[in-house]
Each structure stands twice: as C-alpha cells, then as structure tokens.
Amino acid sequence: MAEATDQPNGGPALQTDTAPHVTRQLKTPRQTPRAGDFYVCEFPKSGITFLTVLLANALLIANGYRARATFASVRNYIPDLCIGDSVEAHSFADPPLRFYKIHSEFSPQFIHGLYLVRHPVNVMASNLRYAIGRGWWHKDSAEDFLDHPILGIEAWKRHVNGWLVEHNFASDVIFIHLLRYEDLVADPETQLRALDRNFGWQLPENAIVGAVDAASRDHMRSQEAFYRDHNPNHQFEFVSSEGSDVGPALRARVMESCQAELNLLGYSG
Fold first, then answer.
1. pLDDT in tens, 106-163
2. 9: how many CB neighbours lie within 10 A of its CB?
3. CA distance linking residue 126 with residue 240, whole number of Å
4. Taking Cα atoms as reference points, which of 128, 130, 156 lies closest to residue 140?
C-alpha cells in the first residue's frame, strides 16, 4: 500500500511510492559496456528528450540513414535505462558510439557522461506540473512540493552535487560534458558543435545542420501532437510551448536553498 506523507491542512497527501524512483543509482548495467558508450543524464524534467533527439539525428545523418529520430522513435536509438535496463542501445559505426538515457545519480560505471542541467526553479515548476498531471501530487501548496522525496529540491541538489562535485576523479575514470538546457534551446548548433569538438566525433556539416532542424522545438511539438493523435492515452505534454507558472514563495525558497549550485552551474539568478 502506498505510504502517504502528512499534510498540515488535512487534505489529500502525496503517495510517495506512486512517483517512480527514476533517479535511483544504476549499479550494474545489464548490457556489456563499450568504450564508446555515452550516458545522457538529467534530473527529471530538465529537457533530455530534446537533447536525445538532437544527438540521435546527428548520428543517423552522419551514418547515412534515411530514418530520423522523432518524439515517438528516439528510444529506438537512445533507450531509457530507467524504463528497461536490459536494453542495448543502437550501435553507430562512424563514430563508433552508443547512447543511453538515464536519470540516475552518479555511478562510476558511466564511461562518458553528458550531464544536462536546467535552472532549479524551472525544474521544480515543471516537475510539479508533471506530478499533478500524472496524479502523483494533490496538495494545494506548490511550495510543499519542494519537500518531495524524489522530485524535490534536496533531491535535485543531491543529483547535481553527486555528478559534478562529490565523486572522486582519482578513482572514477569518467569524462563529463556539462550542458545547460537554456543554452541548448537558445543555440543547439553551438552546443552540438561543442560536443563534437570535445569528443572528436568529426561530424559532417550536414549532420549538425540537419540534426538541429530535425530536433527543432516546432518539429518536436508537431511530432508529439501527431503521436497523441494515434495514442489517445498520451495526455501529458512533454514538449510544452509554455513555461510553468512559478510563485514568488517557491522561487525565493529555491534560490535561497541552491546558491552554491547556482554558482557552480553559472546561473546568475
């Protein structure tokens, strides 16, 4: 039976075990690891679908595929290990890479990490909207959501610090490339070129330009709408055209709690 947290006003409480623990640490990969494996990681609701569609299309175009990654097909190429940890990712030949999507807290098993972050105020607002849409949250106060054991602000801080601060580089041989969602949305071409340069992929020009076009926000919203037309059970909007409302109390608490992390990630406010 679900265990409910207490609520001061006596209203319906969060059922803590109804929200899947997607940020749990992945300890033992089911698939055989390879030197060219990349783990694309985020704390939930930081924009990872956009990033995976961008990456998958860049590699598909570079390798001469007719197929393109869409909202409905991106997991064909970049599987989500939080949903199925025994799935082996598609192997690209040139460069020889595989990508896995994860929400996991840091683990030294990851060979290369592409770590995507988003401003914590917007992460909290987006997760609140998602939890309400999925029926995981029923309280009246948005600020109470910050105490959510899986999706709240302390969980976000633990995730960020685990990936970027606390792990020991002397024993954990892993390369991490940090991306900010805001930079990715503002200029995806520059961010993709930075990845290409950092890891020496030498993607052809048409792969970079084509991937940016295929992963545009307009295209992705259209793809999700088309998918919804053929799956009426898909009611939540992942690729939203609108931001989430953020009240002043929520913003103030997040900003006060996350000063060290905001400075680390280069957010000025």
1. 988 888 999 999 999 999 999 988 888 778 787 767 888 999 888 999 999 999 999 9
2. 9
3. 10
4. 128
Q: In degrees rounded to 5, what are phi and psi of residue 63? A: -100, 10
**Cβ proximity of 40 and 116 under 8 Å:** yes
Q: Which helix (DSSP H) or strand (DSSP E) does residue 181 occupy? A: helix 181-186
* Cβ proximity of 167 and 176 under 8 Å: no
Q: What is the pTM of this model?
A: 0.86
Q: How far apart are CA 114 and CA 99, in angstroms?
A: 10
Which is nearest to 71 in space by CA: 236, 242, 194? 236
Architecture of the domain spanning 37-265: 3-Layer(aba) Sandwich (3.40)
Q: Three-state DSSP class for 75?
A: helix
Using DSSP, state whether 114 is helix, strand or coil. strand
The residues spanned by each domain of the chain are 37-265
Length reported for the chain: 269
